[in-house]
Every structure is written in C-alpha cells, then in structure tokens.
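The passage that follows is intended for readers who have already worked through the single-chain material. We present the inputs for a multi-component assembly, then the predicted structure in tokenized form, and finally a short commentary. You are encouraged to pause after the input and sketch how you expect the pieces to fit together before reading on.
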Amino acid sequence: MEAAVTVSGLVVDRGRRRVLHGLSFAVPPGQVTGLLGPSGSGKTTLMRALVGVQRVRSGEVTVLGAPAGTPALRARVGYVTQAPSVYDDLSVRENARYFAALYGMSAREADAAIADVGLSDHAGQLVGDLSGGQRGRASLACALVGCPEVLVLDEPTVGLDPVLRVELWGRFHALAEAGTTLIISSHVMDEAGRCDRLLLLRDGELLADSTPAQLRTDGRSQDLEEAFLNLVRAREEVAA
Amino acid sequence: MSAASTTLERTRPAHVSPRLTAATAGRVLRQLRHDHRTIAMMLVLPSVLLGLLYLLWKDLPTIPGQPSIFDRVGLTMLGIFPFVVMFLVTSIAMLRERTSGTLERLLTTPLARLDLLLGYGLAFGLAAALQALVTVGIATTVYGLEVAGSITLVVLIAVADAVLGVALGLLASAFARTEFQAVQFMPVIVLPQFFLCGLLVPVDQMAGWLQAISNVLPLTYAVEALQEVGRSAAATGTMWTDIGIVAGAALLALALAAATLRRRTS
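Having made your guess, compare it with the prediction:
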C-alpha cells in the first residue's frame, strides 16, 4: 500500500538553530503513528511541516501524493495544535460549526464531532469557560468535523483524566480502522504502546522508525520508556 | 519541497469563496455578539462624544451664511469615528488570531487568506453600518446636525471609512508582534491622517508639501466626501470619486494584508 505521508531529507532551521536534521520516513495509511520524543525534540516543527505551515530549508514532504500544504490537501488534512486553537469567545457549538463550514460540512456533522469528543453536554458553553482538558477536546472536535483523511494531532491527551484518555485512544483507533491516517505526538512513553507504529525523535534526529513490539526487542526491555533509554545510550556509545 | 510547493501555491492559489467569506464574517459577528460591552460601546460611544462636541460649541455665535462649527466638525467626525474604532478593533482581533494559534490553524484549512480578510471587512463593515445609523440618527435629531444631502450617503461614507479602518488594521497587525505594538500603530497610521485630512486646516491652505501628503492619504477623501454631502442636496461627482478612492484604498490595503500574511512561518 502506498504511504500516506512520505518525508525525505527534511531539514528545518529556526533562526540559526537547526531543528530537524534531514529526516526521512514514511507513514503507512490507516494506522496510528506515534511521534514520540522529549519536549524540544522537534515534534511540533515536524507536524507543522506535515500540514504545510513550516518554512523548510530542504527536503520533501509528500502527503497523499501531493506536496504538503497545497490547496487541494487542505480539506483532506486535519491539524490540532498543542495549545487549543479555538475561539474562547464562542461556544463549543459555534466553533465546531465554523470549522464545519470551512470544510464544507453541515451543522449536523458539527454536532456529531462534538459528541465524538464527549462535549455534547457543554455544546452551548463558551470555550473560555471550559477546563483545559475540555478546551483541548473542543479543539479536537474542530478537526474531526472535517472528516480528514490524514489527522495530525499535537499532544492531544495532555492534561486529560485517564478514563477520557483511554476513550480518546479508542476513538483514534476506530478512525484508523475506518481508513484515517493518524499522526499523534506525545512526550509520555506509556502512550507509545497504544500506537501501531512509532517514530522516536530526539534532538531533531530520528532515533527509531519502528513498532512497539520491535522497539521492545531492540531496546531489550518490556518497558517502552526503558527501551527508548537503552536505544539512546546505545547510540551515544557508538558516537563516542 | 519548499521551492516546489511555494511555486505551486503561487500559481494555484486557493480560490476566494463567497461561502467561506460569509462563514468567517458570521463567526466574527458571533464573537462580537458574545461581548455585550463592546457592542454597547460601539453603538453608544460615538453619539456620546458627538454630544460633547455639540455642548462645546452650542453657545458660541455662528458666522451668518456659513455652517456652524458643529455642523462642519460633527459631520466629519461621523466618518472619523468608524475609521478609528474599526482600525483598533481589527488590529487587536487579528493579533488575537495570531497569538491564540487560530490563525495558523485557519491557514491549514481550505479558507483562502483573502476569504479571512474579506470576512473581517464584511463583519466590521456591517457593525459600522449599525453604528453609523445610530450616530447619524442621534446627531440629526437630538443635536440638530444639519446635512444638506442625503443621510443614506452619510451612512454609506461612514461604512466605507470603517472598511478602510478594517483594511488598514489588518495590514498593520501583520507588523505587530505584541499587543503593545498593535495599539501603537493607531497613532502611527490614524493620527497623521486625522491631522492632514482637512478638518483642522482646509487642505488648500496647507503648505504645498503637506498638501502633497494629504492628497495621498485616504482619509482626506472620506472627509471631502462628507463635506460634499453636507454642502449640496444632490450627490456630486466629486463625492462619488471620493468614495471610489476610499473603497479603492481599502481594497489595496486588503490585498497588501493578504500578501503579507505568510502561510509558512519559521
């Protein structure tokens, strides 16, 4: 099957600092691909490149067969930023309906997206009056409403209670089964186990492009966090 | 990829869509609707300030055969209020889009950049029409402001001024990184136009080089248009030309704002 996202030789500079050092990988369609790495490893920059709002130095990013960010892609790729990017002075429903309109969807689909993130009871409330976790879900609803083929989510489960987190991961896998390609970043390794594939990023370099099972084998540990650390150490030893 | 995709973006820009422009205008108006104090201030404040001017000049003698100072200044202010208010409101609103991350998100959706800017222009243009109706209504009834020409034309010019304010506000916000900077663009862009628009000193009495500057500032034409309506009962050609210039300047500023709104940032 053809990859949903192909990245080759991606180099990004921010100011004088090189943030991504020539990344190359492919993301298979209809799966949940986790983008894992510590804070500052370049996850957000990489995601911005995938949705076409990041100025890149060199390399190629192809999404669904087209260069990232081209007009034709914008209705097919959804993006949820790390900080909730919705209008605080609008209700959840008004936010969802606006983004629905932008994607050519109806009010009915907006209500369905709100239900999907479990905010139906708060639909009439101003986003500014919601808790941080609810705000994040409102932001997620505004991406789901477009029924994108590729969904790029930057740390969507930060600050959520465990029950809700499990629910959302269930939702992500249901979307993947229906054919959506999801790329989800996280800095907590216990979420890595929930992904079909893993991309481990550290200091702007790809440490591993693997599956959770493979990572456990390569990192010689059942604990993914430990396996990740073992990989980092092994690489540093090679470098030294 | 950057080279390839930027070329593609340039040769095939996302098309401006009336549907998305309207959706955006609706969204901006809904945001406004939740902010009752802003609506109240937008509708009432110009009338209150105009009342202050009315009281200021009420008891001063007028020169026979000439319009009173209040008729001249009050009428001009009907064009200046919406320009200033909409400039400020828009530059803050756009800065909020930028800092809250909603702008970046919008740029990943099918919304064209010009759709976003036209949406703002439409929304605040409508708000300005409402503001102008209230202000003109109160000025002509309560304060006895005398206008020789049509009141509808006064409202039309006020709306054109508001759209000009919106367009310049959107353009200015592209150069502001913080709220402090955004607010200070007001004196930079608004005050010189106010000083040189012909209200404080008639344009033909200014020094030649000041006249030259005044002639390239759009607010000058808005003020001239209002003075035309104040003077003559029928709509004059000069007035229509002036309105055309104001509208053209607004469109130019919107186009420049769209050009300075970068989709890709570092």
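Commentary: Chain A touches chain B through 46 residues (CB under 8 Å). The first helix of chain A runs from residue 43 to 51. How closely did your sketch match?
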